[in-house]
Write a structure and sequence with these properties.
By secondary structure, the protein is α+β, with helices and mostly antiparallel strands. The chain contains five helices and six strands. Residues 154-163 have a biased composition (Low complexity).
């Protein structure tokens, strides 16, 4: 009974948020995360010095990550958002997630050292510092937008705007 209520609340949350996104934005960019691969059990690591024994493989940490992924309904969220964006005639772009959390949006430098902590990002090349989630979201957005192809002497359509919201009161994305 309790598990059913929790599952229903999660589904309700996914439905409400994806509906709001599909109704509010003409364009949404997401990372194409392979959630199935992210929740797989880690393989055991045999100890080469002691046959029949195993080394720590991070299974406890992986189990915690898997619970978080399942609890937040990442797969359901992505599927429902895709369905609703298609039904409303709007665009959903899924971009490869590779290095989005360690690439600098200012200079393009990619290094693990750019990520100072879970929440902190500071580029070791140019010094740009920003919250890591905002930084990664801007990288995903930049990857999702098509490169402008201006004609001779003309600015591309929509140049200078980063707003993607249909509703005037909604801020959309800021570049």
């Amino acid at each position: 009974m309790l598990h059913e209520r929790v599952a229903q609340r999660r589904k309700d949350w996914v439905e409400k948020i994806t509906t709001r996104l599909a109704e509010s934005y003409d364009f949404v960019a997401v990372e194409a995360l392979q959630t199935t691969n992210m929740v797989r059990r880690p393989k055991p690591k045999p100890d080469p010095d002691n046959p029949g024994q195993y080394l720590p493989n991070g299974a406890a940490a992986k189990a915690g990550l898997s619970k978080g992924i399942y609890a937040n309904c990442w797969g359901m969220f992505a599927r429902r958002l895709g369905h609703k964006m298609q039904a409303s005639g709007t665009t959903l772009v899924a971009v490869p997630p590779k290095n989005s959390s360690i690439e600098c949006r200012m200079c393009g430098h990619t290094a693990k050292e750019n990520r100072k902590s879970q929440a902190g990002f500071q580029c070791v090349a140019c010094g740009h510092a920003e919250h890591a989630d905002i930084q990664a979201a801007q990288i995903v957005l930049a990857r999702a937008r098509p490169a402008p192809t201006p004609g001779p002497g003309a600015a591309p359509q929509g140049a200078g705007t980063a707003r993607c919201a249909r509703e005037s009161g909604n801020q959309g994305w800021a570049a």
